[in-house]
């Protein structure tokens, strides 16, 4: 019992002093779309906390653009449906894991509040 109490006290004091952060996975996303939808796709990435890395013309098909971005995985839920609706079914994308980054304060607060609500139930 003494060890449990000591561990509990150590955690209560040590965790706040360590200032832990929540990390979220970031993915590289390549979206292949017709050129006329480029503005819509780039605007959508901004709303998803994405960073646009660049654009390039598809090497084998004229009029096709590849938009490269980095987007948090949490923001990519349902993206396939959104992309299809934005591009009239002509857009495709693929994602590859890039890194973990510190979640923004607003996201962190939301996660903590959600967990606290689950605990109190």
UniProtKB/TrEMBL annotation:
The keyword RNA-binding does not apply. Residues 21-111 form the Elongation factor EFG domain. Keywords: Elongation factor, GTP-binding, Nucleotide-binding, Protein biosynthesis. The keyword Chaperone does not apply. One of its GO terms (molecular function) is translation elongation factor activity. It holds the Pfam family EFG_C. One of its GO terms (biological process) is ribosome disassembly. It comes from the Bacteria. This is Elongation factor G. It comes from Anaeroglobus geminatus F0357.
